[in-house]
Amino acid sequence: KQGVRGRSLQVRADAGASGPKSGQSTFKVAVLGAAGGIGQPLSLLIKMSPLISELRLYDIANVKGVAADLSHCNTPAQVSAYTGASELAAALKDVDLVIIPAGVPRKPGMTRDDLFNINAGIVRTLIEGVADHCPNALINIISNPVNSTVPIAAEVLKAKGVYDPKKLFGVTTLDVVRANTFVAQKKGLRLIDVNVPVIGGHAGVTILPLLSKTKPTVEFTPEEVEELTVRIQNAGTEVVEAKAGAGSATLSMAYAAARFAESCMRGLDGDSDVYECAYVQSEVTDLPFFATTVKLGKKGVEEIVAEDLEGLTEYEKKAVDALKSELKGSIEKGVTFAKKQA
Ligand code: NAI
């Protein structure tokens, strides 16, 4: 169960050796919203991946220049640009992985749910395109509110008859990246060694770091647990406030999304040891979607690691109970939106 986690963005030294064919296959990847604050650095980071043969950049504006710029990097992925709805089909045709950071980000004082009215419609339209042009692709949804946009995507795919719950992911990697960073700083650990699973969802109290399951094992006082939990839950707001109206996390998000995309591709490529936390359809609780550690494989989610919810501390158990009503509301809001539009 304890596979090596978070090794992404490292080219495997043994690529090409015998055993699993990791590093041998290449994939077509589309980034939707590629000209944005996240889209640009994310596209740069994944352009460095040896697992990508084609990188298709789609946006409603300003994407030609981004593609021209990136195409000069001497890494193997071929970069192409697609602008506006009329080019969405060509951007998506037969891709293996679709990454969606399209939509508006938060400004100070806003919750992720305040973005619903704009981003819900954007995600719905883009997922209709995915259903029509690359129904077998893995889908990484970054657009907030993730707690609702993932259920919207599921409903759209169901209505089109192509829903495979193993292939739809809400990207919560940034919560893990933040948890790892803050815990390592607090405890004086080597960053590279630290892994903190983060479960639940991706907004406020629905973000629940399982500090008791930190690897390597480390003791926290109740005060440290409270302080770290609250900081991890509010870390996005820390960035929104520091940017003072200029948007939300883009660079750390691009890093996290690139790590998650790389893990998805390593799973597709047959690497047998790829684990990440993600917000997926799940039966670990009575809610239809929940983030836990998942094992990634050739068809997407290979296994949901239900052990994440076992052996929790009293603090964590209470937090799971407390987050469920907000998460349930966000899921229902997404489902209602998608059904009303169908
Ligand atoms: P941004 O405004 O800088 O970029 C968004 C891009 O989406 C723009 O280039 C825009 O032209 C494009 N876009 C808008 N409508 C589109 C459509 N219909 N089709 C294709 N592209 C479209 O925003 P930023 O900072 O890149 O954030 C993007 C999203 O990611 C936001 O919803 C934000 O809340 C979310 N986010 C999610 C995080 C997570 O952990 N999952 C963390 C940080 C942000």
Automatic annotation (TrEMBL):
Alphabetically ordered keywords of this record: NAD, Oxidoreductase, Tricarboxylic acid cycle
Family assignment from sequence similarity: Belongs to the LDH/MDH superfamily. MDH type 1 family.
One Gene Ontology MF term: L-malate dehydrogenase (NAD+) activity
EC assignment: 1.1.1.37
Name this polypeptide is given: malate dehydrogenase
Any one Gene Ontology cellular component term annotated for this protein: mitochondrion
Catalysed transformations (reactions): (S)-malate + NAD(+) = oxaloacetate + NADH + H(+)
Gene Ontology process terms (BP): malate metabolic process; tricarboxylic acid cycle
Coiled coil: none
Domain Lactate/malate dehydrogenase C-terminal span(s) in chain numbering: 172-337
Oligomeric form and interacting partners: Homodimer.
Residues annotated as domain Lactate/malate dehydrogenase N-terminal: 28-170
